[in-house]
Write a structure and sequence with these properties.
globular; methyltransferase activity; two-stranded parallel ribbon; about 35% helix; about 400 residues; alpha/beta; binds iron/sulfur cluster
Length: about 400
């Protein structure tokens, strides 16, 4: 069966690696497969025609059916074979919380000890799902609630695409017909480029017509600046890229985003330049969380404008870099505060006056702790960071908040 044409075909073609085989005696979770790897599974493990994989993908991702017996266009013998070798195991929703502004948050259990959060944010004409890629995060950005939880493990492809499935089913989303889910951003818990293969495979399902049928530009991966992996992503994928910049110079950025010590701004911008110059060309969004008195002063805005102009020149593309200003969302125990509204507007004006395309992200879902940077989940920490954070909170007399 030929691969589909257009974006879905491109998405299917990029996934080269098949997922890890299930341990002996265990059944394979179909959620772990994108189109190519599921076709391989049907051909090599089940001894079936490759196109059968397409029928199963449609049942799962378009109709939210997880029982093979309900997949009525599959023959009885194939259903029996599927029962023997595979299962469709959706992640378990532990808790869900709607916000007054329409935002919806899910706490999703990944194993008995760990849970992550996913958030749906509806807006005029679009619905964006913010998806997690790891249980916790190892990168320790100083202004991030997830970082205080420490790190446990990477999510599997099934656990990443499972978040999309849970949200899409809740919304009654029907790809190509009744589209409620229009965008996915890999901006939840974790650094997606540190879980490369599973994230790329999950993004392939998001963009495949047999999956959620989203256009390349409607799937965004956000990174803190894993330079070599940005290049690797550019080789295999056409998704939109967002970079968590948060400071316009190395001294301040290293303080806020410790990864900057390894990959300083010059190296990061060079990797972004290479990403933009691929074909088709696409701009990059630079995320900049504004914190009172830390990175929100006029001198920071001027430095940032210079950096963006240099980026336009290097890429020879107008608006190659867009800036997304995010008012800081406080969480218990943080030493940072949100910038004053007047400072946020003044910062944006300085950038706009310097011809830098700049948006301010409206805060959504803060009544349910679902705003940007507030996701926490439940992490069986392997880094001791939770313990350190609790000690800091206790020293501040905020023990309750640390519990
Ligand atoms: S901001 Fe992102 S990369 Fe940094 S600690 Fe938080 S989740 Fe990790």
């Amino acid at each position: 069966m030929p691969a589909a044409t257009g974006p879905a075909g491109a998405a299917a073609a990029e996934s080269k690696n098949n997922p890890e085989p299930a341990p002996a005696g265990a059944r394979t979770n179909i959620f772990d497969f994108d189109r190519v790897s599921l076709e391989d599974f049907f051909e090599n493990v089940l001894g079936e025609k490759r196109y059968r994989a397409h029928q199963v993908m449609k049942w799962i991702h378009h109709r939210y059916v997880t029982d093979f017996d309900d997949m009525t266009d599959l023959g009885k013998a194939l259903r029996a074979k599927l029962h023997q070798h595979a299962e469709v195991r959706a992640p378990m929703v532990i808790h869900e919380k709607p916000s007054v502004d329409g935002t919806h948050k899910w706490l999703i259990g990944m194993d008995p000890m760990n849970a992550i959060e996913a958030v749906f944010i509806p807006d005029k004409g679009r619905g964006t799902l913010c998806v997690s890629s790891q249980v916790g995060c190892a990168l320790n950005c100083q202004f991030c609630s997830t970082a205080t939880q420490g790190f446990n493990r990477n999510l599997t492809t099934a656990e990443i695409i499972g978040q999309v499935w849970v949200a899409a089913r809740h919304l009654g989303n029907i790809p190509h017909q009744q589209r409620k889910l229009t965008n996915v951003v890999m901006m939840g818990m974790g650094e997606p480029l540190m879980n490369f293969d599973n994230v790329v495979r999950a993004m392939s399902i998001m963009r495949d017509d047999l999956g959620y049928g989203l256009a390349n530009k409607r799937v965004t991966l956000s990174t803190a600046g894993m330079v070599p992996m940005i290049d690797k992503l550019g080789e295999v994928s056409d998704v939109s890229l967002a970079v968590s910049l948060h400071a316009p110079n190395d001294e301040l950025r290293t303080e806020l985003v410790p990864l900057n010590k390894k990959y300083p701004i010059e190296e990061l911008m060079a990797a972004c330049e290479r990403y933009v110059k691929r074909k088709p060309r696409s701009s990059i969004t630079f995320e900049y969380t504004l914190m009172k008195g830390v990175n929100d002063q006029p001198r920071h805005a001027r430095e940032l404008a210079r950096l963006m102009r240099q980026f336009d020149n290097a890429t020879q593309m107008k608006d190659a870099g867009k800036v997304n200003l995010i008012p800081f969302n406080p969480f218990p125990g943080t030493r940072f505060e949100r910038s004053a509204e007047s400072d946020i507007r003044a910062f944006q004006k300085l950038l706009l006056d310097a011809q830098v395309l700049t948006m301010v992200r409206r805060t959504r879902g803060d009544d349910i702790d679902a705003a940007c940077g507030q996701l926490k989940g439940q992490v069986m920490d392997r880094t001791r960071r939770q313990a350190e954070f609790r000690k800091t909170l206790a020293a501040q007399g905020a023990d309750d908040a640390a519990a």
